[in-house]
Each structure stands twice: as C-alpha cells, then as structure tokens.
Amino acid sequence: MSAPLYQSPKGVHDVLPDDHLYFSFIKKVVRHHCRRAGFRRISTPMFENVDVFTRSIGSTSDIVEKEMFTLESKSGKKFALKPEGTAGVIRAYIQHGMQQLPKPIQLYYVEPHFRYNRPQKGRFRQFHQFGFELIGESDPAVDAQIINISHRINQDLGIDDRLTLQLNTIGSMTDREKFKEDLINFYTGKERSLCEDCKRRMKENPLRLLDCKEEDCQILASMAPKFENVISSESKEHFELLKEYLEELNVPYELNPLLVRGLDYYTHTVFEFWSKKDGSQNATGGGGRYDGLIELMGGQPTPAIGYAAGMERTVEYMKETGIRPPNKDAVAIFVAQLGLVAKKKSLTLINQLRDEGLNVVGAAGKGSMKSQMSLADRLGAKYSLILGQIEVQEGTIILRDMNKGSQETIPIEGIVEKMTKLLGGKSLKNKKLWEE
Ligand code: AMP
Q1: pLDDT at 58
Q2: What is the structure's pLDDT at 55?
Q3: Which of 47, 256, 365, 388 is an S-S bond match for 79, by CB 3.0 to 4.6 Å?
C-alpha cells in the first residue's frame, strides 16, 4: 500500500479512540482528586506572547533555548506555543485580579503542550499534560499535600508501583546564588571534561550541570560541592518538615541531591516521579515550589507550588502494567431492520433506548441482515434487536444475545424496559443533562 498523501507532522500524533479511553480515564482521576482538594479548572491559550515563557522559564533553560515553537504575526509580534502550563496560569492569575482574592488560589489544567525537541519514545512535539498549581501558601505542609495528590493520582491510575518519587530541595534564591558560586569554582579548570551543553551551562545556568545525562558530566557532578554546605537553616527546616509530613502521609520518597529540574523558577522543594526501570529518562511528571515566579512576572511576591505530568507517558505505563480503563464507548445494543416500515419503527426505538442511558447503534443503510449482523459483531454489541416486516406485522422483535449466539422472538411492547433491566441503564428521560 502506498503512503497516504498527507501525514501528521513529525513528532505529533492523533489521539485515536482506543487511546482516548485512557485519556478520559486519566482526566477523570485527575478531576476527582483536584475537586476533592478544592482545585478549579483553568484553560490558558495555546499560545502566549513569547516573553511570558522567556521571562518565567528562564532564557537559559533547554525549553526556551531549544524547544520553543515560536510564531511571528504579520506585524512582527512574537508568540510561542505553550511548552508548559505554569507560566500561562500565573500570567492569567495576575491578569484577572486573582491576587486580590483570598488565598490559596488552587487551579488545575489538562491541556496540549508543544516542545520542539527531537521526537523519540515518550518525547513528542505535541503532548498533553495535566497539572495543578496552589498559589499563596508557603507552608511545607502544602508541599506535602501537592506531592500526596500526585502520588494518589499515580496510585489510582495503577502505575505507582513502577515509579519512585525523587525529592530534593534547591533552597531559596539566596542559597542558590551561593551554591552557583561554589559550583563555578569547582568546575573552573575542568571545562575540558564537560559536554558542549555543560560548557555553556557553566556560564549561564550552573545548577543544570548537576542533572546532565552525559556520563562524564555525571561523574563530575557526583564529585561537585553539595548543596547541604550552603543551605540556610530556614530552607533546611522547610525540607525537614516536608519529609516528616510525607512520612506521616505514607508517601515513599528517595532523596536525590542531583535533582534540580530544568526550569529556572523553582525554589525549595523539587520532585519528580521516575521510572524504576529507566530513571529520569522516563519521568511521568514533576513539580516544585516557585516562590519567586509571581513577582518575576510582575505580580505581588506570592509563594506557590505546582505539579505537571505527561499524559502520553502515563498511558504508556498504564498499558505496560496491563491496565485497561473502563470502556464507556462500548456499544450495548445494535438495532437491525429490514424494510421501510421496520426502519421507521427502529428510529423511535433507538431514541427510546438511548434515553435510558444505553449506547445504541442502528443500521442506517440498506444492507442485508448478514451484513448488519457482521457490523453488530464488529462493534462488539452485547445484544442485537432485529425488526423485519413479519415482526412489525406481528408486534414482535427478535432479541439476539451476541455472545451466546442465541435468539428469541418476544413482544415489542415492554422491550425498552426489558433492555434497560438487562443492561442496567440509567434513565435520562425528562432529564436535562445540566441537572444532576
Ligand atoms: P517537565 O515539566 O518538563 O518535567 O514535564 C513534565 C512531564 O511532562 C514529563 O515528566 C513528561 O511526562 C511530560 N513531557 C514533557 N515533555 C514531553 C514531551 N516532549 N513529550 C511527551 N511528554 C513530555
């Protein structure tokens, strides 16, 4: 077969119906946990003024430096497709006067994001993330709660056994400045052993020297000065309390002094969920505290913390674990008919069955009974209801159990009630869908 004329661009994918079963389930679990904890949903635009990201994420981060999809308007204005969620949420928080509202402000999102990276397994140019942000509280108990919700989501998705929670503190901005100096002193004179990226990082973002994936850089990183030498007592206390709270909540974690996260705006707590098998390469999600970001973006100084996870990677893990989300799309009944009168009658019957909350597909065309039945098979319908001319005349209908292959002719009267009972429908009759 020759290749189709048009294909999706490199690194971007269609989410086909089978994968949407996973996406819907993940959204449901996320929504459940977020609602229970007082988060409300927000959607920010697919693109923002490019400064929203360069200012917040930091112009020396990989995302801004190499991975942003930028666009230019006819008048020369520069925009970027959003590579992550926090910057846009904080821009919206400031723009819409949420600073004036009682704190904390708790927001969550489920959105596509875009990064211009080299496509490979688990790394795409368009991918989906869910995430949540809690703004206006600096207590480490909040850090513990955010981490706990992330952990509970992983548990409810059935993937927590495959993951380890990596935890670190990168302290306050002042701690970090001191640490950067220590790092530069250590690395000065050792530049030749560093990869090209790290040579650059040394000048622009020395903290990132610690989480380089190159082997030689990792060896040097393991010998580099430790953050615990410079951390202030306040930052240390924050971290100690966080660990105690996590223990109280029974959330297992591993301390990882080399975890810094790619984004400039983090302070204090940073955490990621790594694969037990592949380590950081296949993290499902990560987050941290970003107490300096809101001020950096022009708002009042306000502490905040957030988490974001990749949906595609989460789906991958669920599949590997053998988890099948419930199939809400499954067809319960296929209605087959032969002849014009039967077709007319079947239209009303289909409506009535759907009103009972059942998934019902009707044969629309003029296909033979054989082809209609093979369609019912292909759709995986549990039952077929068959209306022919004789049945219409006699006031009956054929009920076929598709799994057993058995069938019986029964009166058409009462068929809707019978099917609802058989399949456990939830009546939607006379119910407005917005009324619960
Ligand atoms: P980050 O904020 O960069 O740590 O991203 C959080 C999570 O989003 C990661 O742990 C991944 O699960 C997911 N993610 C980030 N970038 C990509 C990508 N290019 N393709 C697929 N998933 C991604």
Answers
A1: 79
A2: 87
A3: 47
Ligand 1 pocket check for 325: Cβ under 6 Å: no
- Predicted confidence at residue 436, as pLDDT, reads 56
Q: What is the pLDDT of residue 426?
A: 82
Residue span of the structural domain in which 387 resides: 333-428
- Taking Cα atoms as reference points, which of 206, 210, 208, 205 lies closest to residue 221? 210
- Over 80: is that where the pLDDT of 107 sits? yes
Are residues 290 and 404 both part of a single domain? no
Residue 380 belongs to some domain of the structure: yes
CA distance 213 to 278: 12
Name the CA dihedral angle for 143, 148, 149, 151, rounded to a multiple of 10 degrees: 130
What are the tokens at 101? 């509202």
Does the Cβ of 63 fall within 6 Å of ligand 1?
Answer: no
The verdict on whether omega for the bond into residue 411 sits within 30 degrees of 0, i.e. cis, is no
How many domains would you assign to the chain?
Answer: 2
Q: Classify residue 193: in a domain, yes or no.
A: no
- Long-range contacts of 404-413, Cβ-Cβ distance < 8 Å, separation of 24 or more: 412/349, 412/387
pLDDT (tens digit per residue) in 219-250: 999 999 988 889 999 999 999 999 999 999 99
Measured distance CA(283)–CA(95) in Å, rounded:
32
| Residue 66 maps to a domain | yes
Asked if 117 and 147 touch (Cβ cutoff 8 Å), the reply is no
Of 321, 346, 361, the residue at which a domain comes to its end is: 321
Looking up residue 304, the CATH number of its domain turns out to be: 3.30.930.10
**At residue 294, what is the residue type?**
I
Ligand 1 center to 419 CA (angstroms): 45
Q: What is the mean pLDDT of residues 212-221?
A: 89
- Looking at the chain, the whole-number percentage of residues with pLDDT higher than 70 is 99
pTM higher than 0.70, yes or no? yes
Distance 183 CA to ligand 1 centre (A): 27
CB 300, CB 292: distance < 8 Å: no
Q: Which residues pair with 166 in a beta bridge?
A: 254, 272
Nearest CA to ligand 1 atom 10: 285
Task: Calculate mean pLDDT across residues 160-173.
Answer: 95
Nearest CA to ligand 1 atom 14: 310
**Residue whose CB lies within 8 A of the most ligand 1 atoms, among 313, 315, 317, 318, for a mutation test:** 313
203 found inside a domain: no
Last residue of a domain, one of 280, 299, 321: 321
Cα maximum dimension of the chain: 95
